[in-house]
Amino acid sequence: MKILKLIRSRVLGIGVAGVMGLSSLAAPFSALAADAGENVSENEASEAGLPEEGSEETKEDTIEDTKEDKKEDTKEEAGEETEGSSEEATVSGNEAEEDTEEEDEDVSENDGELPIDTCFPGEPGFPSEPAVPDEPETPVTPPAPAAYTGITIDGELSDWDAVPKNSAAGMIQEAAVIQDGDYVYIYLKDDGNECAAWSGPKNNGKFSFVSDLGYTTTFQLNNNPASVSGVDGAFCAYKFSWDNPGFGEWEVAVPVSALPVNMGSYSFGFYQGDRFVEGITDDRYHVVDPDNGDEDENKPFDGIVYDGLYGDWKNYPHTLIHYATSGTEERVVDGEGALYVDGSTLYGHCITIMNRHLNNEGGNEMLEGVVLRINGRDDMLFEFRFATVDGAGNINWHPQLEYLSEGTYEYIISDVNGWGNAANIEELKNQGVDKDGYYGRILVTVDSVTDECEWWLDLPLLAERFGLDETDIKTIEVKYEQIGDRWLETAGASSGAVAGIMLSLSAVGAVLVLRKKKGERGQCTI
After folding, report:
1. Given a cut of 70, is residue 470 above it in pLDDT?
2. DSSP 3-state percent helix, strand, coil across the chain (nearest 5)
3. What single-letter DSSP state applies at residue 123?
C-alpha cells in the first residue's frame, strides 16, 4: 500500500510542475502591463509610505504576489484545458489529501522518523536486512596416521613415515629402528653430504647394537659411495635433500643373525657413545622351559658348569672390554667378559673375535696379564700364573701360552709371586698359600673365529692369601691386560666370601644384581 502511495505522490508532483510551467509563460505579459503605467513609480511609493524597491519587505511581497499570480493563472489555464475532467481532478485532490494525512499519521506513529516510503538504504529509518545465520563450520579431520607396510632399501623414504623417529646426537639429527623378519632396518637423518660416515665420538662412522646382556655388535657407514661394512649381508641407501638447510637420509638393513645375544631387547646408537633408540624388541626371543625338552638356546641362565662348552655363559650379562675405544680400526669389539659367584667359588669368562688377537696372539690374550684385585686395593693384587699338569700329575711351570693351535687347553692357576717349585699337583695342594698355592683352573679354546676361556677360583684360599676372613672380601675385580684396560667387577656381601655379584652395564644403562647362596644354583634377582 505504501509503495502505491509513493507512486501517486510522484505522479501528482509531475502534474503540478507542468501547470507551473504554463504560468511562467504568462510572466512576460504581466511585465508589459507594468511598463504601461499600471505600477507605481518609486517616488510615489516612497511618498505614499510604501517600502522601497529592493528592500526585504518588497522582496517578500513580490514573492507572495508571484505565488498568487501563479495560482490564479494555473487555475484559469487548468480550468480551460481540463473542463471535462474536473471530477477526476477533484477525486485525485481528495486522494492526495488523504495520502498526506496518512503520511502525517505515519510520522506520528514512528515518533518523528521518516516513513519507510521516503527512506533509502543507508538513511535513518530504513529497515535493516534480516540477519543471515552463519554457516556451520565444517570440522577438520586430521589425516590418518601412516600405516606400516614394510621397509624397502631403495632411497625412497616414504615407507618410514609410520616408524617413530627419535632425536639423536652430533651430526645425526634423527634415528629410528624397526626389526622386521630377517632384517633390522635403521633410519638416520644426518646434516648432509653423507656426514654420518664421519660422525660419532671418534668421527669414524661407527655404530652399534648393545643387548640387554651387554653384548655388542658394531658396523661402520662409509661415503663416496654410501655403504656399510663390518657385518656380512648388511646394505644401505642414501638420499640427499636440497632443502635449506640441506640434510641426508640413510636407510640400512642388518641381518637379525648379526644382532648381539640378548634376552629380548637391545639398543642402537654410536659405538661407545650416545644411544639413539632404547628397548628395541627382538621378536625372536622367547623364554623356554628346559624341563619340557625344549633345546632352544635362549633358555634362562641357570648357573655355570666348568666344562669348556661356554654355552651356559651365553645368557649371562657381560661387559665390554677394550683398548681401541670407538676409534678402533677394526669393526668388532676387543672383547667381552663376565664374573659370577656361586657360594665360595668365583667363575670368570672372556671372549674375543678381534682379528688382531686371533692372528697375533693365539690364546695368549687370555693367559698373560690377567690380574685380580680385592676391595679396590692395589696392595691386594693377585696375578694369575698358569701351569699345565700331565696325566701323572706332574706340573710344567713353563708351558706354551701363545700361538696355540686350534683346540682347547687347560691350565692350573697359581700365584705369579709363588715359588713355582712344586713337582706335582698333590705337592702343590699341600703347600698352601705361603709358597705357590693351587687356587683354581682355566680352560682356553682357540679357533679361527673366536678365542674364549672360562675359569674358577677358590675364594676361601684367596682370602687366606691376603690374611682376610671370607666376610672381609667386599669386591673383586679382574682385568685382562692384553684385551683392554677395563676392570670387571663383583660385589661381595657379609654373609660369605663374596655372596653376590654386580655387573655395571653402563652401555645399556642398567644394573643387574645376582644373589647366590651357598648350595643354590640359578637363583636370579633383578
Report:
1. yes
2. 30, 30, 45
3. S
